Amino acid sequence: MTSEETREQNGIELEYDLNEPPQKVWRAISNPELREAWLPGQDLANPEPTTITPGREVRYALRESVPPFLESTVTFRIIPNGTGGTSLRIIHELDGTSFGRMTKAAANSNSPIRMRAA
Predict the structure, then answer these.
(1) Which of 22-36, 56-70, 76-90, 91-105 has the lowest mean pLDDT?
(2) Could you tell me the CATH number of the domain that includes residue 73?
(3) Between β-strands 86-94 and 11-18, what pairing exists: parallel, antiparallel or unpaired?
(4) Which CDD domains does the annotation name (predicted)?
(5) How sure is the predictor about 23, in pLDDT bands with cuts at 50, 70 and 90?
(6) What residues are paired with 76 via a beta bridge?
């Protein structure tokens, strides 16, 4: 297995070359019982995919269980490679609204700046 990582402005993209055939990878990412082993239902905003293109792509909505309850989307794309294996691309993107909230606040404080006269 080889991997490649690309960072986007509001997400991350990973690409893996797997030895397993596309049908097996598809089952692992789309079958709820198999998916539960590596992407538990409690991490999903909804256990059903938001979009699905059978045999090619599945997208899930995620929502953190702790503040600030960021929402994101993870997309799994599979493409057969030339050796009988699979190229798996995982794209994890923060929701635009969530990303905006994150970048506006200071890392150490969510309160307004106050200055005192000496």
Answers:
(1) 91-105
(2) 3.30.530.20
(3) antiparallel
(4) SRPBCC_CalC_Aha1-like
(5) very high
(6) 58, 90
